[in-house]
Design brief:
about 900 residues; mainly beta; rod-shaped; Filamentous_hemagglutn_rpt; CdiA_FHA1_rpt
Length: about 900
């Protein structure tokens, strides 16, 4: 046929040769071609029925080609510059090419009358391709169903229809659009590829092969991916229903990938630079990696199973209602927001980890970050490992049996209770703060810096548990029960009450401030290496309380245990009861009432200030140094002694029946009467009474001397004042001695009124008896050296000196008597007078009587001392037992009486008529 226009019209055309024209047009019912049909400039085939292009057949055009048939079967070549195929169905195993454009439209024709006489297509709108469909330009396929086992390629490729079954290739360097109302099924050998945009819209997508685009955008009712989805620059896959990714599946993008579905189940590998997932539920047992960011949004339930991985080198954001993680979640930062989290896998934010939950967090896995960790939740149940540089946790409650560690800081703020089980550890190398209503600790709470516990309710630190703050520990609660260890560098405790049967220790300082009871039970230890300050309404110590310095203030103090202070001990309390041991280097107790049936010991000093001091029979009040006390009253039935000075002041009367002893000076003052029926002992003793001092007991001193000052001094028989040093008794009124007052040193007895001795006064040295009236009634007064008896130290004469049946002697000294009246008498004799003539010796009856020595029988007379008597008066007489080396008497008004019972009448001096009664005696 010449190369011009050729038109063929017929019923059936069979061509095995060559038909060629410039413009070739054929209208026929059927065409069976195994030859060549060439329309050089254009080709139009309009078939009412079928077109069969055999394997050797070629239908060609360098121009536009348009083929229309009810059914096309191609095993040969269909090619044109611009090729448009319209058919009911197409079965291609050959080659179909539109150089600049290729369009295929399969299905019901727009004009149903065109194929009215044709046999109905077997599959209306079905394209079966086992060959090649190619164009250097755009390819457009409009089909009901594309079954592709071959290759479809175009500069751009568009597939529209109901269903695509692909086990071949769909390739385009440009945009590739697939729009289906039904399913897209890409088998394991199927490839849908483009370097540009791959846009898929389908009812369902099932992929076992490769769906790849420069950018992949897909929307479907559901997705089942067992193959690979790849959007090199970006990937978006949105489904109204579910998305399922098998174990061997891949979802890859170098850019951002966005997935949205009602439910997503993944067992494969997802990787994108940025990965955004939005799903009502997500079940992951594969790996999802967003290299710079991973975000999962709006998930009612997120389940990352044991094999699951959610990974990012950047940020991970999880937003869901219920999040269950048994696998690995790791990002540079990890932010979890939702209802609840159940984690037995790992949640890691390398630089930051944040969880904000409306409901509970249950962690039996790991929650890790090298940066800040933030948690906000309802109930926090933790049995795993949670570690951050700093942990800031806000929750309704905490139940911990795992390890919760904030390297630099741990902050727990709870509106409800906290429980730390026996395996639980709350740790920080820095600051750790716990705020809660109640706290029960059976494990370990430890801070390298400050441990701050602020509770509105109670705290229980169980046996074997520990609360440790290396630098500081601060605890505030309503009621504290400690059975374990509570320890810190500096410890401060504030509460209503503390029950301690464990250890409370402040390495440097310890402060306990309680509005109620501080109870330290028998197994309890309260310890400090430095200052301890205790303040409580009531302290009951049955255990061990030890510190370097210790102070207590409160209302009641009761001790049956041990209380030790290496340095100072200061107890200030209205009511003090001790049945145990209290010891301090420098101890001071200030109390309205002190009742001691135990041991009070001050190493250097002990000071007691009280209204009532009762040292019971089992009581021991000791000081290895000085001891001083002030009290309104003293009941001393135990042991009371100081190795140094003992200084006591009784602001009332004192009735003493026991023992007080001092290694140095014992000073005891009573503002009222002082009745001493016990034993007072010291190297020196100084006694003062505002009223009467009565000594029926024993006062013993060393060479430090004895001093007694009182309004009146009375020592009944059995009383003893003994000293190795000077003895001084001073009274504002009188001194009465029926016992023994003696010393190796000097004696000074000074009374404003009367000094009466019926006992023994002894001085190894000098003795001064100073009083207005001195009476020695059957007593003994003995001075080793000189003896003065007068009104005062100035030497003034007193009113009288009476020696009645007593002895007044010095051993090696003089006796000086300055008195207005000296009465030296002997009681107990009776005289009977009868008148009879008697022989009068020749030497009697004169003015001077010289008695010969021969008048006396041997032994009747002797010489005691050689002495002189000097007096200013007009009489002299023999006296009873006043013996000295020299006696100096100043008598004012010149009266000396040497008296015995029943003196004879007319007893006057023969020289001066001064009343003088002479009886045998010695002066």
């Amino acid at each position: 046929m010449p190369a011009a226009q050729g038109t063929i019209t017929g019923g059936a055309v069979v061509n095995s040769g060559q038909l060629q024209a410039g413009q070739l047009q054929m209208t026929t019912a059927t065409l069976d071609n195994s030859g060549t049909l060439l329309g050089q400039d254009g080709l139009t085939l309009a078939l009412m029925d079928t077109l069969q292009n055999q394997s050797g057949g070629q239908i060609l055009s360098a121009g536009a080609g348009a083929l229309t048939a009810a059914a096309i079967t191609n095993a040969g070549v269909l090619q044109a510059d611009s090729l448009q195929l319209t058919a009911g169905e197409l079965d291609n195993s050959g080659h179909i090419q539109g150089d600049s454009r290729l369009g295929l439209r399969l299905g019901q024709p727009e004009d149903n009358a065109v194929w009215a006489s044709a046999a109905a297509p077997v599959a209306l709108g079905v394209l079966n391709n086992q060959g090649g469909i190619i164009s250097n330009g755009a390819v457009s396929l409009q089909v009901a169903q594309l079954n592709n086992q071959g290759g479809v390629q175009g500069q751009s490729l568009e597939v529209q229809g109901e269903q695509l079954l692909n086990s071949g290739t769909l390739i385009s360097p440009g945009e590739l659009d697939i729009t289906l109302t039904g399913a897209l099924s890409n088998s394991s050998s199927g490839q849908v590829l483009t370097d540009a945009l791959l846009n898929i819209a389908a009812g369902t997508v099932g992929n076992q092969g490769l769906l790849q685009g420069g950018t992949l955008t897909a929307a479907a009712e559901s997705l089942d991916n067992q193959g690979q989805l790849q959007g090199t620059q970006g990937l978006t896959f949105i489904t109204d229903g579910s998305q399922t990714y098998g174990a061997n599946s891949r979802l890859l993008s170098n850019g951002a990938a966005a997935l949205g579905a009602q439910a997503i189940s993944n067992a494969g590998l997802w990787q994108a630079d940025v990965l955004n997932i939005t799903a009502a539920s997500l079940d992951n047992s594969g790996a999802m990696a967003g290299l710079t960011r991973l975000a999962i949004h709006d998930s009612d339930q997120l389940d990352n199973s044991a094999a699951g991985q959610l990974l990012s080198n950047g940020d991970i954001t999880l937003l869901g209602g219920e999040i269950v993680n048994s696998g690995e979640v790791q990002g540079e930062t990890l932010t979890v927001t939702g209802g609840s989290v159940d984690n037995d896998g790992s949640l890691t934010g390398l630089n930051q980890l944040s969880l904000t939950l409306n409901d509970s967090l249950s962690n039996s896995g790991k929650m890790l970050t090298d940066g800040a960790g933030t948690l906000s939740a309802g109930q926090f149940i933790h049995s795993g490992i949670a570690q951050a540089q700093q942990w800031n946790i806000t929750a309704a409650s905490l139940d911990n049996s795992g390890i919760l560690a904030g390297i630099d800081g741990l902050w727990l703020s709870l509106t409800g209770s906290a429980q730390n089980q026996s395996q639980g550890q709350l740790l920080s190398n820095g600051v750790s703060q716990i705020q809660a209503a109640d706290f029960t600790n059976s494990g370990t709470v430890q801070a390298g810096g400050l441990l701050d516990l602020q509770l509105t309710g109670d705290i229980v630190n169980a046996a074997g548990a520990s609360l440790l703050g290396a630098d500081q520990l601060q605890l505030r609660a309503a009621h504290i029960t400690n059975q374990g260890i509570l320890q810190g560098g500096e410890v401060s405790v504030n509460a209503a009450a503390l029950d301690n049967s464990g250890t409370v220790q402040g390495d440097q300082t310890l402060g306990l401030t309680l509005t109620g009871l501080l109870s330290n039970l028998s197994s309890g230890e309260i310890l400090s290496g430095g200052q301890t300050s205790l303040s409580a309404n009531q302290l009951n110590n049955q255990g061990w309380l030890q510190s370097q310095q210790l102070t207590f203030t409160g209302s009641q103090f009761s001790n049956s245990g041990t209380l030790l202070a290496g340095d100072t001990l200061q107890l200030t309390v209205p009511t003090f009861t001790n049945q145990g041991t209290i010891q301090g280097d420098r101890a001071a107790i200030d109390s309205s009432t002190i009742s001691n049936d135990g041991t009070l010991l001050g190493i250097t000093s002990l000071a007691l200030q009280s209204g009532t001091l009762d040292n019971q029979s089992g009581g021991r009040i000791y000081s290895a140094g000085d001891l001083n006390f002030t009290s309104a009253s003293l009941q001393q039935n135990g042991q009371f002694l100081a190795l140094g000075n003992l200084d006591g002041h009784i602001t009332g009367a004192l009735d003493f029946t026991s023992l007080l002893a001092a290694g140095q000076t014992l000073t005891l003052k009573a503002d009222g009467d002082f009745s001493q029926q016990g034993t007072l002992q010291g190297n020196a003793v100084q006694l003062t009474a505002g009223g009467t001092f009565t000594n029926g007991g024993e006062v013993v001193t060393g060479d430090g001397g004895l001093s007694v000052t009182a309004a009146a001094i009375d020592q009944p028989s059995g009383g003893s004042l003994q000293s190795g040093g000077a003895v001084s008794l001073t009274s504002n009124t009188g001194i009465t001695n029926q016992g023994f007052i003696g010393t190796l040193g000097s004696v000074l007895l000074q009374a404003a009124a009367t000094l009466t001795n019926t006992g023994l006064l002894y001085a190894g040295g000098n003795m001064q008896l100073l009083a207005d009236s001195i009476q020695n009634i059957g007593g003994d007064i003995l001075a080793g050296e000189n003896l003065w008896m007068q009104r005062d130290a100035a030497g003034d004469a007193n009113s009288q000196i009476v020696n009645s049946s007593g002895d007044i002697e010095t051993q090696n000294g003089d006796i000086t008597l300055n008195t207005g009246l000296l009465l030296n008498q002997r009681l107990g004799f009776s005289v009977t007078e009868t008148d009879s003539a008697a022989d009068v010796p020749s030497w009697a009856g004169g003015a001077d009587v010289l008695i010969p020595v021969s008048w006396f029988a041997p032994g009747d007379i002797g010489v005691y001392h050689i002495f002189s008597v000097t007096y200013a008066g007009g009489g002299k007489a023999a006296a009873f037992s006043v013996k000295a080396i020299a006696i100096t008497m100043r008598l004012t008004p010149r009266r000396t009486i040497n008296w015995s019972p029943s003196p004879p009448p007319n007893c006057r001096s023969p020289r001066t008529a001064t009343p003088v009664c002479w009886r045998p005696g010695t002066i």
